[in-house]
Design brief:
Helix 5 links the parallel strand 1 and strand 2. The protein is α/β, with parallel strands linked by helices and about 400 residues long. Strands 9-8-5-2-1-13 form a 6-stranded parallel β-sheet. It has a 3-stranded parallel β-sheet with strand order 10-11-12. The chain has 17 helices and 13 strands. The two termini are about 35 Å apart.
């Protein structure tokens, strides 16, 4: 153990070393783990244009940089200069990769490397944070990389099967394995684990993607899964708030609802989400399901301030990022236009809009809403500060 004189000599030597590298006091402070960059991020956000800030609130398909009005019509597997050119006009916050973007290990590494290299400059200024790279790699039927045979990766039957013997260590080992190869291919975020409680046997979209029909069991498995991802260097995202496990319909196709009261949801669906929040999860994905006996309307939860502000932020005390489920899904597109949906979601309290059906219309719609006074710029700044703080911590 160091004596007090030894400690003083050590600190003095450290200070000399810092000064020898030309670090001023402020830069040295930045090296301190207690300094989280909040002041710098606030100043950066103030220097950004409104459009730059709004673009940071979007995670899109890579195809949106080539065909923003219909990204589903393309299958991109290679990065190209057209993508970089469009990114300079719409510097989005990140990208989500799907099976059609994945061919082989070499191809995926090159593709994600191109996306990670994107940077945005406005005159002499540049935004210091690269785009986030995201993927749905739950294990089981939703595993974009592992289910591509050319990768030769271990596959899991389902999360329900993996959790059947109630062994949290199995879940940790599986998620650490998943996180490790996700990290290897350049990703930052895995949109997993599913925190839904699979209580409805007629559910056609969640089913074995959930860990259990028991909320306490699901909660323990959710925290174990998050821990495995974190130890592999990947940020997890629990989904689909406020719980998709007791629904019958698929929000990819159209309207779906939970008819439970909030007290009923709180006693079941909220148990895994509360566990995830207590474990420090930084991203929660919102489902497009309606909850009429909670909100009094048929609004999708992604567009409901009751769900996002009163319940998630207020009652549950969640302070991390709120991200929508894909806005290209039928539950949204069959009733709302891209700009209308994006504006409504921001008004409700969303930080990140995932996969808009038309990127230009969605971004431009929010910009217009701010300029018309429908949304305050302060509201935009709150989300952008959260997003850039998240990126800073990466």
């Amino acid at each position: 153990m160091l004596t007090l004189p030894d400690m003083k000599r050590f600190l003095a030597a450290t200070l000399i070393l810092l000064l020898s590298f030309g670090l001023n006091a402020r830069e040295a402070k930045r090296l301190d783990g207690r300094h989280n960059g909040t002041d710098e991020i606030t100043r950066l956000v103030k220097r950004m244009t409104l459009k730059e800030k709004v673009c940071q609130m979007f995670i899109v398909r890579p195809e949106s940089l080539v065909c923003p009005q219909d990204p589903l019509s393309l299958d991109l597997t290679e990065f190209n200069s057209d993508m970089a050119d469009f990114f300079s006009e719409y510097p989005v916050g990140g990208f989500c990769i799907f099976p059609k973007n994945i061919v082989s290990p070499e191809q995926l590494s090159k593709f994600t490397g191109g996306l990670r290299s994107l940077s945005y400059r406005s005159g002499a200024r540049s935004l210091p944070f690269r785009p986030l790279l995201c993927i749905d790699e739950e294990g089981g039927r939703v595993a974009r990389i592992a289910n591509t045979d050319s990768f030769g990766l271990k596959k899991f039957e389902s999360m329900t099967a993996l959790a059947a013997d109630n062994d949290e260590e199995k879940i940790y080992d599986a998620s650490f394995y998943i996180g490790s190869y996700v990290k290897e291919y350049g990703f930052d975020i895995d949109f997993a684990p599913v925190a839904d409680v699979n209580t409805n046997p007629d559910n056609i979209i969640i089913g074995p993607r959930a860990f259990s029909d028991n909320p306490e069991t699901a909660a323990r498995m959710v925290t174990s899964y998050l821990s495995g991802l974190s130890d592999a260097g990947i940020k997890g995202c629990i989904k689909h708030f406020p719980g998709h496990g007791d629904t019958r319909n698929d929000t990819h196709l159209g309207y779906a609802a939970s008819n439970k009261t909030w007290d009923e949801i709180d006693a079941c669906e909220m148990v895994p989400f509360k566990a995830g929040i207590a474990a420090g999860v930084q991203l929660i994905m919102i489902a497009h399901i309606a909850a009429p006996n909670v909100t009094g309307t048929d609004l999708p939860s992604t567009l409901s301030s009751v769900i996002l502000q009163e319940k998630l932020r207020g009652e549950l005390g969640y302070k991390g990022l709120i991200i929508t489920d894909a806005m290209e899904m039928g539950a949204i597109t069959l009733k709302y236009g891209p700009a209308e949906a994006a504006v409504a979601s921001v008004k409700a309290g969303t930080d990140i809009i995932l996969l808009p059906a038309d990127l230009k219309k969605a971004v431009d719609g929010i910009v217009r809403a701010v300029r018309k006074g429908e949304i305050s710029e302060k509201r935009i700044d709150e989300s952008v500060c959260r997003i850039l703080s998240f990126k800073h911590k990466l």
